[in-house]
Amino acid sequence: MKLIQTVKELQTALDDVRAQGKTIGLVPTMGALHAGHASLVKRCVAENDVAVVSVFVNPTQFNDKNDLLKYPRTLEADCHLLEGVGAAIVFAPSVDEMYPEPDNRHFSYAPLDTVMEGVHRPGHFNGVCQIVSKLFEAVKPDRAYFGEKDFQQLAIIREMVRQMRYPLTIVGCPIVREADGLALSSRNARLSEAERVSALGISQTLFRSLDFAKGHTLAETKRFVEEGIASVEGLRLEYFEIVDGRTLQTVSSWDDSDYIVGCITVYCGEVRLIDNIKYKEETK
């Protein structure tokens, strides 16, 4: 496995790969890797000749500078994990390498980016699109892999790829959870023992709402989740929206769409956690 820190060296290495007719997969990450990331990389390794994993804490997607400072950075441990799951190249650039000058590009994919995270984290998705587009242009992958835990992000990246006509396939991968149901997240490392117990209330409430939804209206189900989170000490709901899985727009009835997802963001102490649940699975 190679550790590469400059775009020039990365492109030279990948030009050699392409010259051999090999396919390239990309898994963009911000490091602090866990089993959820490992599952993305394993799929990337299985479906491509060469798996590239980027490890870069992207400053332009943080609207809270304190959150940026606290974000865990564990490159040595990340590389150990990535070597174990078969990554061929780890691309770990500096901020100056990725942003030699300010990136003034503005990405807008309304209405996908004007709801949920778009409301609560202004500028976040613009920063995501800045860095992901830079990675696509540097790596030129055949496929890129993203987790469905960041459900809104995945939808926006798909739309960016469509509008910018990048010649690649976006592969969405299922949420990976702890044995007790908590969605894996790099932010989980910041939870105290007591907060970790409280955080479990997020997925437990979502799972209970699946059964509840079978005999209740969408509005009743939304209230069930909101009250469930409020009943757990240490949790503070930022939002819970039940949306069309393609447009991300809120729906008012189970009959409004054939693909319905509940998206939630909750503060556990100072740690902001996201999760989602599918009430109606997408039909191909």
Rg computed from alpha carbons, rounded to a whole number of angstroms = 19 Å
Q: Which sequence of SSEs, written as H and E, runs from N to C?
A: EHEHEHHEHHHEHEHHEEE
What CATH calls the topology of the largest domain is: Rossmann fold
Beta-strand segment tally: 9
User: Taking strands numbered 1, 2, ... along the chain, how are they ordered across the largest sheet?
Assistant: 1-4-3-2-5-6
- Specify the structural class: alpha/beta
Distance between the termini: 37 Å
Please state the overall shape, judged from the principal axes of the Cα atoms.
globular
Level of helix content?
40-55%
Specify the CATH architecture of the largest domain: 3-Layer(aba) Sandwich
Please provide a written account of the structure.
The protein has 284 residues and is α/β, with parallel strands linked by helices. It folds into two domains: 172 residues, Rossmann fold, CATH 3.40.50.620; 89 residues, Pantoate--beta-alanine Ligase, Chain: A,domain 2 (2-Layer Sandwich). The chain is built from ten helices and nine strands. The strands form two sheets. The protein has a six-stranded parallel sheet with strand order 1-4-3-2-5-6, with helices on both faces. Helix 8 links the parallel strand 5 and strand 6. The radius of gyration is 19 Å and the shape is globular.
Give a brief rundown of this model.
This protein has ten helices and nine strands. It is of the alpha/beta class and 284 residues long. Strand 5 (143-147), helix 8 and strand 6 form a beta-alpha-beta unit.
